[in-house]
Amino acid sequence: MVVLGSTGFTTPAQAVRVATVALASTAPVAQEVASFWLADEAANLRNATPYTVRTAVGAERLSTDIVPDGPPRTVVAPQEGPPPYEGKTPTTWGKVFFIGGDGLPHWCTGTSMQTKYRNLVATAGHCLFDIEAPMGALGKWVFVPGYAEGETPFGLYVGKVGSSHYDFDDIRDLDRDYAFVNVYSGVVLSAPDVLTHAGHLGVNVGGQGLAVNQPLGSTIDVFGHPAGAHPDGSRPFTGETLERSTGPTFATRFTALRADRPLGVDSPFTGEGALGSSWVTDYASDTRTGYLSGITMSVSDTDGDNRYDTGISPYFDSELAEVYRYASGQWTGVVVR
Questions:
Q1: CA distance linking residue 132 with residue 134, whole number of Å
Q2: Stretch (H or E) spanning 47
Q3: Of 37, 113, 170, 281, which one has the fewest beta carbons inside 10 Å?
Q4: Phi/psi at 185 (5° precision)
Q5: Exposed/middle/buried for residue 316 (C-beta within 10 Å: 0-12, 13-18, 19+)
C-alpha cells in the first residue's frame, strides 16, 4: 500500500544548506545556449550521447529498513498537463542536455516538477554538477520534454540556476545525488536563427508531485530513457523512447562507494541514459502524473548474472523536501518575448 501521508512542509531542527550553481544567468546568454542546441536542424541535440559518468555501482540488496527522518508525506501535488493537441500528448519526461567535461554533448533523463512558477526540472545531481571537476556545473544545460530524434515538440527550456543539497556540491555525498533546475520559459525555432517564445514548462506539459519518507516495499514506476548495454553486452534499450518499469523498493549497500541510505528498486534499466530517471509513487495513467519519490543516480547488477536488475536512488527525506522548497520559489523569466 502506498503511504503518501499528509501534505505540507515541516521545519527541520537545523536548516538545510542548499548549494546553487548559476547556469545561463541572463536572457542573452540563454539565447546563445538555445541557439547552440537548435541550430543546424538541432544538430547538437541529435549528436548528443548518453552521459556515462558513474552509471553503474556495485551494490547488495538488504532486508533491513531505512529509518526516515520524519513521517511519510506529500510535499506538493502533481499538476496534469494540457490534453493532447495536434497529435502530441504532453509529457513531463524528457532529456536534459549539456556539455560534459570532455567538451562533448551528452544527455540524462529529467522530469518537470509542479511549482508555483511552473519552471522546475528534477534530475540526478551529477547530471547538473560536473563531479569530474573540482566544482561547477555541466555546460549549456537545457531540458527538452518529449524529445525524439531532434524534435522539441513542447519547446526547449534553458536552465538558469540549479540547486542541490550542500553536501553533494561540497563532498559529493551520494545520499544527496539529486538536483532541481529552474528553467526559463521555453523557446522554439520559428525560422532559421529565429527563437520564439513557447510558454512555461509546467503550463505546456504539467508537473509531477513530490513525496518523501516513503516506506520500503512500495511498488513504484520508473520512467527514463535507458540506452546503454548490460554487462553481458546486450542492448535491449535504444534511448529513443521513454521506457517504464515497475517494482518494489528496498534498502541497498554499496560494495565500494560510501552512502548511508541508498534506495533500490527492481528495474532492468541500463545505466547510460537512465541517469535522472523518475521514480513515481501513486502514478495515474489517465493524468500521466504521480509523486516523485526517487531519482536514478546509478544502476547495479546485484545477483551477478551480468544484467542490471536494480536502480539506485538517494532516499528522499525531509532535507530533500527543503531543497525542493528553496528551488520551487525561484523565478526565472523568459528568453525572448
A1: 7
A2: helix 27-47
A3: 170
A4: -60, 155
A5: buried
Q: Is the distance from CB of 165 to CB of 112 less than 8 angstroms?
A: no
- Hunting for cell 540563454 — which residue is that? 30
315 secondary structure, DSSP code: -
> Which of these, 156, 167, 163, lies nearest to 137 by C-alpha position?
163
- Amino acid, single-letter form, for residue 324: Y
DSSP letter for 133, please.
S
pLDDT at 169: 92
pLDDT tens digits along 116-162: 999 999 999 999 999 998 779 999 999 999 999 999 999 999 999 99
Strand (E) or helix (H) holding 170: helix 166-171
Q: What pLDDT is stored for residue 85 in this prediction?
A: 86
The pLDDT value given to residue 226: 98
Is-contact 292 279, C-beta < 8 A?
yes
CB atoms within 10 A of CB 75: 25
Q: What is the pLDDT of residue 110?
A: 99
Q: How far apart are CA 38 and CA 40, in angstroms?
A: 7
Q: How far is the C-alpha of 333 from the C-alpha of 148, rounded, in Å? A: 26
HSE (side-chain half, CA atoms, 13 Å) at 335 = 31
Give the chain's residues under pLDDT 50.
1-13
What pLDDT is stored for residue 124 in this prediction?
Answer: 98
CA dist 74 and 214 (Å) reads 9
User: In angstroms, how far is CA 113 from the centroid of its own chain?
Assistant: 9
The grid coordinates of residue 194 equal 529565429
pLDDT in tens, 72-121: 999 999 999 999 988 899 999 999 999 999 999 999 999 999 999 999 99
Give the number of other CB atoms < 10 A from CB of residue 188.
17
CA distance 163 to 72: 23
